[in-house]
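$ ./design --mode recover --in tokens.txt
reading tokens...
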């Protein structure tokens, strides 16, 4: 900062008049702090304070630091014992800057706390950004969680605004994310190849999509026979066949439960219901039974995806 630049005092808790050290940010904000606290959380500051001090210097020392107050405040707040609240980051870039400052000052005790805050604040809306920061910081747990959340992004890998915050990520970490997304798509697709995972209950056996007498008389019936629970291979109705094939393609592009559940994404579901209206018998029960099937389907997709690991 310029020598003529005016300074101000940081807001609580860094405005304590009993302070014995001042950290001055690049934008002229003075943070009143205590040497003991800074020494405990940062070996760098500890070494600085153990250097010989001039006995004639009565004023509180001022240390100029190369961070702005927007970065310094959350950094110091995380290491302050009586702060009473965690900082809220404005965006992932600010969180990354705080992380880099924590590393520079060797504040190892708060680095993982920053990871928890980043995940809590940004994971729902910015999973790729959280993934990128987590990879750079070595937060493998948060990287896995963010990668799983990124499955909600359709056709991951195509250029899109979703990739904001990914600029600093390495090629290896980006590749393993794409590989994870692809393998989850393969696993999710495979769920619909056989329905042996369905419960072997009388209700399941009588479901319309493989027991419709009216559809059996139609010219399109009899094309696909598939394993149903433990009942053997049963031939499914045309509308259900189309649903299975289409939903599997949807899951390949977006391998998560929301693909099957959200009407905006699951065009296969809506088309199946419309197609079922061609059958006088199916049209009255298709919505209820397909919805019941979809509940089991989603649960099985979740299980399949959970078995896929994010490569290290």
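writing sequence...
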């Amino acid at each position: 900062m310029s020598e003529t630049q005016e300074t101000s005092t940081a807001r609580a808790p860094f405005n304590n008049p009993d302070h014995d050290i001042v950290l001055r940010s690049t934008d002229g904000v003075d943070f009143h702090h205590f040497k003991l606290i800074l020494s405990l959380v940062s070996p760098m500051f500890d070494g600085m304070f153990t250097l010989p001090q001039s006995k004639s210097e009565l004023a509180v020392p001022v240390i100029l630091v190369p961070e702005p107050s927007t970065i310094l405040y959350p950094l110091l707040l995380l290491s302050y014992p009586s702060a009473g609240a965690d900082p809220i980051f404005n965006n992932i870039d600010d969180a990354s800057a705080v992380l880099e400052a924590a590393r520079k000052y060797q504040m190892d005790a708060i680095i993982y706390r920053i990871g928890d805050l980043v995940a809590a604040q940004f994971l729902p809306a910015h999973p790729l950004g959280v993934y990128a920061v987590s990879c750079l910081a070595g937060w493998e747990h948060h990287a896995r969680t963010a990668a799983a959340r990124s499955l909600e992004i359709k056709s991951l890998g195509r250029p899109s605004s979703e990739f904001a915050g990914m600029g600093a990520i390495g090629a290896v970490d980006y590749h393993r994310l794409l590989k994870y997304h692809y393998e989850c798509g393969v696993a999710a697709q495979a769920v619909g190849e056989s329905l042996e995972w369905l419960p072997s209950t009388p209700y399941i056996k009588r479901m319309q999509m493989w027991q419709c007498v009216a559809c059996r008389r139609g010219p399109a019936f009899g094309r696909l026979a598939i394993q149903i629970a433990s009942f053997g291979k049963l031939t499914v109705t045309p509308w259900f066949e189309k649903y299975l094939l289409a939903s599997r393609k949807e899951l390949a592009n977006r391998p998560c439960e929301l693909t099957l559940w959200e009407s905006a994404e699951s065009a296969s579901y809506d088309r199946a219901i419309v197609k079922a209206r061609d059958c006088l018998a199916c049209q009255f029960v298709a919505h209820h039974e397909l919805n019941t099937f979809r509940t089991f389907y989603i649960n099985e997709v979740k299980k399949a995806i959970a078995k896929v690991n994010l490569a290290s």
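exit 0
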